[in-house]
Automatic annotation (TrEMBL):
Keyword entries, A-Z: Membrane, Transmembrane, Transmembrane helix
Family statement drawn from the similarity comment of this UniProt entry: Belongs to the band 7/mec-2 family. HflK subfamily.
UniProt-recorded name of the protein: Band 7 domain-containing protein
Keyword Transmembrane in record: yes
Length: 317
């Protein structure tokens, strides 16, 4: 029986099982020897010890809150973790930032031995402190508006890059996969005032958009009307100029004719004028200037019908 117990103890001390998501870190009298892959492995009893490190499992750390339970009964608690979520922004405001970091072990040796406070049984306290320090640094470089609204994605990317650089510098053996901001809000004491400010900003943006829309409608129309007025003025100017030049050329032509034959030109102008004016008159009566006693011969009744008001024009020629 004693021999069987010794053989069983020796067998349990010689063989060990490494799961598929783990690697085994073998220590001999506390000194690192090697890293073994998943499967059934052997070691020297009593002198060798094995620490199993999950290298493919994704690990998660939560900041500002904790979740308890799984599935449909998951509960979220935030009351006990406000201190790690309260942060000062670059414009000296306060924001409550809850976030999650997902990471994995990239180098088991560094993860176990390089940095104190990182590794199995420590809850990776040093890594948590590094997360909080980097997040506070990044949030402190931005305004509260950026943190609460448009800057969330940029914060996630920047924190991931800086945190990975810090992990590499300290040789923690950790690879940061993802930073996710959960809830980013102002403190409860100022949240109503923040909501009012946010509503005012939304109303301001709406009014600016409406004004821009109105501007886009009115300004192009006014520009078109102005261009149309300018074209009409230019057309009117060109018409007047052409008419004036035509009248000037006609006057110069007549003057040249008049200068060459004044009497003939004067007579022609008189006749042309009379030809235009006489058709616009009503009744016309031509009397020789030497005639005498012509009153009984005047057709007064006909003249009254042609000139109802009794007026008329007489050409004594």
């Amino acid at each position: 029986v004693i021999i069987a117990i010794l053989l069983l103890t020796l067998g349990r001390g010689t063989f060990y099982q490494v799961q598929t998501e783990e690697v085994g870190v073998v220590l001999r009298f506390g000194k690192f020897i090697k890293i073994t892959d998943p499967g059934l492995r052997m070691k020297i009893p009593f002198s060798d010890t094995v620490q199993r490190v999950p290298v493919t499992r994704q690990l998660t750390q939560q900041f500002g809150f904790r979740t308890t339970g799984t599935g449909a009964r998951t509960n979220i608690s935030t009351e006990m973790f406000q201190d790690e979520a309260l942060m000062l922004t670059g414009d000296l405001n306060v924001a409550v930032v809850d976030w999650i970091v997902q990471y994995r072990v990239a180098d088991p040796y560094q993860y176990l031995f390089k940095v104190r406070g990182i590794g199995p049984g420590t809850d990776d306290e040093t890594f948590r402190d590094m997360n909080e320090a980097v997040m506070r640094e990044v949030v402190g470089d931005r305004t509260v508006t950026e943190v609460l609204t448009v800057g969330r994605q940029d914060i996630e990317v920047t924190v991931k890059e800086r945190l990975q650089a810090l992990c590499d510098q300290y040789e923690t053996g950790i690879a940061v996969d993802l930073i996710v901001l959960q809830d980013v809000n102002p403190p409860d004491a100022v949240k109503p005032s923040w909501d009012e400010v946010n509503q005012a900003q939304q109303q301001r943006d709406r009014m600016i958009n409406e004004a821009q829309t109105r501007y886009n409608q009115v300004i192009p129309r006014a520009g078109g009307e102005a261009q149309q007025t300018i074209l009409q003025a230019e057309g009117y100017s060109l018409d007047r100029t052409n008419r004036a030049e035509g009248d000037s050329s006609r006057f110069i032509s007549i003057y040249e004719q008049y200068r060459r034959a004044p009497d003939v030109t004067r007579q022609r102008l008189y006749l042309e004028t009379m030809q235009r004016v006489l058709p616009m008159l009503g009744g016309k009566l031509f009397i020789d200037e030497d005639a005498q006693g012509v009153l009984p011969l005047l057709p007064l009744d006909t003249l009254r019908q042609v000139i109802p008001n009794g007026g008329g024009q007489e050409d004594n020629r």
